[in-house]
Amino acid sequence: YGIPNFKMRKEILQDKLEYLERMGIEFVCNTVIGKDVTVDDLMRERGFDAVFLGTGAPVGGEMKIEGEELANVYQATEFLVRGNLEPEQLPENMREPMDCADKDVLVVGGGDTSMDCVRTAIRLEAKSVTCMYRRTEAEQKGREEERKHAREEGVEFMYLTIPTRFTGENGRVAAAECERMRLGEPDESGRRRPEPIPGSQFTLPADIVVLAIGYSPDELMEKTTPGLRTTPWKTVRVDEDYATTRPGVFAGGDNVNGADLVVTAMADGRRASEAIHRYLESL
Ligand SMILES: Cc1cc2nc3c(=O)[nH]c(=O)nc-3n(C[C@H](O)[C@H](O)[C@H](O)COP(=O)(O)OP(=O)(O)OC[C@H]3O[C@@H](n4cnc5c(N)ncnc54)[C@H](O)[C@@H]3O)c2cc1C
Question: Which residues does ligand 1 sit against, CB inside 6 Å?
């Protein structure tokens, strides 16, 4: 629901949900698997023969720098949800208005999520919107088209730069202390590793900071599902049939691949459903 309306109208999702309901699918909302009920409960007590885990990668990355706890420093998901939904559509603790009008907004991160954030900030009438990324545009992972739209709308891109500390006034963020970077040798992802340039520190005013530096799966499922194994990156281990290490439990999408794309999650879902069908027939 944080996906901005300028990118996808909520009615498209609503139509799809209604279509799936008409097909006979029952949606059980406001239930956290691993907290309200466990996978064990579903299989042993409620009689499900197979379970598919499509829980995504919802945990936003933290910078772990001083000042991150200041007011008006947001995780991308909270910023997008609050910036794109009406207060009555939000949980009570998020209803306080988020005032971006005439503010300097700094978005940290260079992927598609950061483009959603900068373009949302523009629509919330920010005075300035800066997208800060530690590498150059050549290494940026998101789509070029999104950056083009952002530039057309007035977003400033600040490459080869990281914030090292956020400073505040009266508990609210007021500025980001930053450092320039240069590219060194390639890292394990094959992209050249950014290295700080000594003596390049400077301060950037920022009334609102949004952290959009990646997502990872949460550990709830692993902790509450005996036999379910994950990788060091917290993604669920599956075989070529999307079967996890727990018999009868399958998984796919971002909780297996890490934060990725809708199209890969959909492809996983389709292939996993065929594998689940074969599994059920074998019982
Ligand atoms: C801001 C943003 C912008 C993006 N923009 C794009 C884009 O433009 N194009 C693109 O292709 N991709 C984009 N993505 C990525 C895309 O949204 C994901 O790759 C895709 O949604 C993954 O699908 P999924 O089914 O694996 O997980 P999700 O779509 O994340 O669905 C997981 C669902 O599981 C629920 N859930 C999680 N844990 C539990 C639990 N314990 N119990 C019950 N339910 C649970 C969640 O509430 C959620 O409804 C974007 C992502 C973000 C965050």
Answer: 2-3, 32-34, 54-56, 58, 76, 80, 112-113, 116, 220, 253-254, 260-263, 265
Q: Whole-angstrom Cα distance, residue 245 to residue 131?
A: 41
**Number of domains the chain is built from:** 2
Contact status, residue 120 vs residue 114, Cβ threshold 8 Å: no
> Ligand 1 atom 2: the closest Cα is on which residue?
113
| Average pLDDT for the chain | 95
| 218-255 pLDDT per residue, tens | 999 999 999 999 999 999 999 999 999 999 999 999 99
Give the domain extent around 243: 31-58+229-282
Q: How far apart are alpha carbons 221 and 223 in whole angstroms?
A: 5
The per-residue pLDDT for range 89-102, each reduced to its tens digit, is 888 888 887 899 99
Residues 93 and 172 in one domain: yes
- Probe ligand 1: pick from 9, 39, 112, max atoms within 8 Å of CB? 112
